Amino acid sequence: KCSKKQLNLSRNMLIEFSNEMRHLDKLETLYMNQNNIRSIPEGIFPHLRSLKLVKLSTNRLAKLPSDINQCTSITYLDLSKNCLQSIQPLIGLPKLEELLVEKNQLTELPSQLFQTDNCKLTVLEKKKNIEEKVKTMLTNRRMVLKQRKRNLEESTDPALFMDQVDELDCLLEYKLKVIRG
Description:
alpha/beta
């Protein structure tokens, strides 16, 4: 067992993720970005129960270990600039707040990432796709809201008015999260 809380192995030309990492059970922050790591063995992440921040960007990861979701304390995970085609193993990370996945080979994002009861995921970067989706969503919302505004102007129902205000608040909150991301 080791009491080290932070480990920075960035820019070391590493090609493998050592099995010995499982003994770092107190580790909270792991930087292994800018290496040449192609895979991560199964059986390491379940032992890293205190791990909160993981930076694995700019490697050659083709897939994630299926048990990474057993490391339930992760709040920040940077997987950008890899060769990932799927991030399915991340489903079930209850504390994940920031996930960076830009510049991978992803074609879709698992909807289950956003469906847990206490999901706090606020930043998900796959910039081009997300920007296009947000623009389309906002354009569609604007059209719907313009129609509702016309309906509201013609209506005298206060309950309908409050529903519209709540909907606008949700839209603005989502837009702010996207802009901050």
